[in-house]
Design goal:
This protein is an all-alpha fold and 40 residues long. 78% of the residues lie in helices and 0% in strands.
Length: 40
Amino acid sequence: MSHTQEPSGQRERMLETPIPRLIPSLAAPTITSMLVTAIY
């Protein structure tokens, strides 16, 4: 998975990916950074 996607590719991902798979893939980086901040 590339983090430097063009806007149209990101839009397609948001529209075509099933919700149960999309939410964890978007939440994982946020949760990870919050855990690192809390531990630090």
